[in-house]
Amino acid sequence: MSDHAKYLTTEVDGQIATLTMIRTDKRNAMSDGLIAALENAYVTLPKEVRVVILTGAGGHFCSGLDLSEHVSRSAEDGVYHSRNWHRVMEMIQFGGKVTISAMEGAVIGGGLELAASTHVRIAEPSVIFQLPEGRRGIFVGGGASVRVGRILGADRMVEMMLTGRKYGAEDGLRLGLTHYSVEAGEALPLARKLAEQIAGNAPMSNYFMVQALSRINDMSRSDGLFTESLCAALVQTTPDAEEGLNAFLEKRAPVFR
């Protein structure tokens, strides 16, 4: 068994891959080993895979930093360590595959950072969203200050971290930490349904939705509007744009590349 196989399994079914975190004795805790396994999984997926479903075995998504592996680092090493996590989270968000998180149980600390780097999030009633770093004497280092901060707003994130507040699935839906709140056992079935739907979209439309919208959100209003025009002009030149228009006029389902 490779080191990666201790942390993650990969199943590919046509255009959809399912990645399952399997370190159940640790509630799928975030670690350098899991980060490496995630990177390896994404870079080795077949080209035809368009959508990834990310989930956790054993009743938990990801319980955050594995404190048993936490080591003392110099400031220099700490920066490099954090930046490596950022690199892998950026790859998940912008690497070209759409990722759906099917979540239950712990979505805590680094687990919430991981979920926030994915594009669609589905939560079951058992989900707990939390950023407990303040109670551990540490600070977020996997991207939460940007990704979770953008979702919640800085003010609410400050309170969440200061108090160690836990949010459930319904609160998460209200706040934007999840896009769907479903009954127990329904996250994976919904993830598969949405994955099939997303995989059936025009590939360049999916690509620009993932690549452009978050970046436009970082821009000034005028820069964002100009970038939107460029994106629209590029996407409408693809064969899929012509197929989508023809399908609409002919009152049939489009058949994209």
Low-pLDDT runs? none
Beta percentage is 5-15%
Count of helical stretches? 11
Largest sheet: 6 strands, mixed
| Class from helix and strand fractions | alpha/beta
Counted beta strands: 8
InterPro entries: ClpP/crotonase-like_dom_sf, Enoyl-CoA_hydra/iso, Enoyl-CoA_hydra_C
Pfam families: ECH_1 (PF00378)
Protein name: Crotonase/enoyl-CoA hydratase family protein
Family: Belongs to the enoyl-CoA hydratase/isomerase family.
Describe it:
The longest helix has 20 residues, at 75-94. By secondary structure, the protein is α/β, with parallel strands linked by helices. The protein contains eleven helices and eight strands. A six-stranded mixed sheet has the order 1-2-3-4-6-8, sandwiched between helices. It has a two-stranded parallel ribbon with strand order 5-7. The chain has helices spanning 32-44, 75-94, 110-116, 133-136, 144-152, 154-163, 169-175, 187-199, 203-217, 221-235, 239-249, and strands at 8-13, 16-21, 51-56, 98-103, 106-108, 120-123, 128-130, 180-181. Strand 1 (8-13) and strand 2 (16-21) form a beta hairpin. It is globular and about 60 Å long. The model has no long low-confidence stretch (mean pLDDT 93). The chain starts with 7 loop residues before the first strand and ends in an 8-residue tail after the last helix. The relative contact order is 0.11. Helix content is 48%, strand content 14%.
